[in-house]
Amino acid sequence: MLRAAEEIAKVLGEDAVCYDADVLEHHGHSEWSTSNSPGRAVAVVYPKSTEDVSAIARICHGRSVPMVPFGAGSSVEGNFSQPHSGICVDFSYMDKIVAFHPDDMDVVVQPGVNWVNLNNHIASSGLFAPMDPSPTATVGGMVSTNCSGTNAFRYGTMKDWVLNLTVVLADGTVIKTRRRPRKTSAGYNLTALFVGAEGTLGMVTEATLKLAPLPQDTSVAVVPFPSIHAAAAAATTLIRSGIQLAALEIMDDQQMAILNAHGSPTVRKRHWAEQPTLFLKFGGTPDSIAADTARVAALLTPSNSTTPDPPALHIARTKEEAADLWAARKESLFTMTSIRPPAHEMWSTDVAVPISRLAEIIAWSKAECSALGIFASVVGHVGDGNFHVAMTYDTRDAAQKEAVGKCVKRMMEKALEMEGTVSGEHGIGIGKKGCLVDELGEEAIAVMRRVKRAVDPRGVMNPGKVFH
Ligand SMILES: Cc1cc2nc3c(=O)[nH]c(=O)nc-3n(C[C@H](O)[C@H](O)[C@H](O)COP(=O)(O)OP(=O)(O)OC[C@H]3O[C@@H](n4cnc5c(N)ncnc54)[C@H](O)[C@@H]3O)c2cc1C
């Protein structure tokens, strides 16, 4: 492995290879994840072009050395960890916008482009890339985890926004999966093969992304409910109403209490009802938003309601207030992480079920967590039937960690019982390999293995991920 790193330094230059222990640690371990591995890469390499990546792959392939692609390291299932060591390929110097085609509503980018920077850069065109995972995430990682976020309710997931990919295969071969038109039915859908592959099939070195028109205006509303069931039932009503919400999110009573106690100054400008709360985002013209908010208000508080205490929909009165309300949802994970007691870690998991089953599984998951007597809270992309449970446990207490692990496993089983999935948006990594078999069955995994062997016969691309 070290010889491969030395060889890479000869081709890319000494500056392109780093052996620093802190850098290796940063690239091999995630504070956000429980699915870490003790393995570390022997070196981190920094390519600047597709040719550099191809050279890295040829060298590593020749020596059967693992390559682990790295974007911003924000993934949470041990997706970029290095259980088999190897060379970590960091794309942070491949952060250029290669071509912007506003008339075609697409943009060609290198994988190290951060989505927030991209959107700031093109904002004046009235277009944006809609996926919104961690604000630090890069296009390469977003493509490779098929990420989504709060905007997925309106815009779908990353797979819906990728027009084509340039990919360096394990042996250094460079392919482009398709060209730039919005549609094609030419040949196998190779783009889809690499979206969500978690870097196990090749390294993305360029992506053409579709862009959406920025809504002319946006607004935000929040509405608390007496129970998770009531909140989820209201969410179902809203989804079925056909109102084009831009996002529909849920936070449980624990999360709302955390906002009051530990939210940022922006978030603590108001006192939040410590009840399960829906967060709604509206997008469109000022007129359409006014019509949508009126319809939502009518649906949530029907005039013939016999409920003595109907839920109070609070609609942001100003742009600033809308931003503050939404910040509460976006900051939730950061706030949870920042208040962990010493020696405690957070086990965060992500499942998705058909939307009609969401209330049931959230209520069930909360009951499981409270039976453990640990701190746990729920946030979710309720519009997509996708939610996250974050559980805090004491790392010094092996029994507690084991109990939390078993609880997560039961949550996966419950999601599968409901025809759901063990990962709505975070991927499989090393954390959920066993559950993927439960979800898809041995035969489907065997097909995945055959595909993997066809493009990576030596098993050097991000080994040990997705399946055993
Ligand atoms: C605070 C926070 C909030 C989050 N919210 C969301 C959310 O709402 N929705 C959501 O979907 N996710 C969310 N995530 C998870 C994370 O942001 C996403 O998984 C994101 O897509 C990862 O991007 P990254 O650049 O950090 O990739 P990394 O973590 O660096 O890598 C992810 C995977 O992609 C592979 N990879 C990276 N670059 C390439 C490349 N060029 N070619 C091939 N493979 C590559 C890696 O090997 C790894 O398997 C959140 C994470 C955090 C910490």
From TrEMBL:
What EC number(s) would the UniProt record show? Answer: 1.1.2.4
- The main enzyme category here is oxidoreductase
Co-factor requirement: FAD
Q: Report the protein name in the record.
A: D-lactate dehydrogenase (cytochrome)
Similarity section: Belongs to the FAD-binding oxidoreductase/transferase type 4 family.
Report domain FAD-binding PCMH-type positions: 37-214
**What Gene Ontology cellular component terms go with this record?**
mitochondrion
Presence of the UniProt keyword Zinc-finger in the record: no
